[in-house]
Amino acid sequence: MGVGMNLHDDVGGFVASRFLVLPGSYRLEVGEAMGLLEALSWIKSLGLQQVKIEVDAQLIVTALNTTRGVESVFYDYILACKRELSHLQEVSVSFVYRVANEKAHQITRLAKTFPSHQCWIEPPSFVVGLSNRTCIC
Q1: Would strands 14-21 and 2-8 be described as parallel, antiparallel, or unpaired?
Q2: Nearest CA-CA partner of 94 in 66, 130, 39, 57
Q3: CA angle, residues 90, 96, 98, in degrees to nearest 5
């Protein structure tokens, strides 16, 4: 499973992109939660603050705003995301429609050809021209 992430500044300028290969096969909602957890870890490692994360999985945002969930692998990842969020300053997660999150999906589709994770500090050629939004998938 692949997870694509893009970081942009407050005016839409490119900061970095990242692609991760997560071993195994997971239900879609678990993969989305794993992707968010990876994004939060990346934000933390970069020491970023005041970050707006946009995901195209409404279930993730709903679960983050729920006080209790059904015991499951998905909810375990949601709890881990909540813990990470509590340690980050001014980091929010909101829902966007997939069309607004296309750049992250583009990275995920095309970077799957790489044998392991990749990180770019210059825009990779295959994402140039897509809308500039901070996003993960």
Answers
A1: antiparallel
A2: 57
A3: 140
Residues in the chain: 137
Q: Where are the alpha helices (DSSP H) in 10-134?
A: 28-46, 58-64, 73-86, 102-111
Q: Is residue 130's pLDDT more than 60? A: no
Positive or negative torsion for Cα 123, 124, 125, 127 = negative
Flag whether the pTM goes above 0.85. no
- Eight-class DSSP state of 99: G
pLDDT of residue 76: 95
Alpha helices in 47-114 (DSSP H): 58-64, 73-86, 102-111
- How far apart, in whole angstroms, are the C-alpha atoms of residue 10 and residue 21? 28
Residues contacting 15, CB < 8 A, separation 6+: 7, 8, 9
Structure tokens at 87: 């340690």
Lowest mean pLDDT among 34-38, 51-55, 70-74, 96-100: 96-100
> What pLDDT is recorded for position 89?
87
CB of 56 within 8 A of CB of 98?
yes
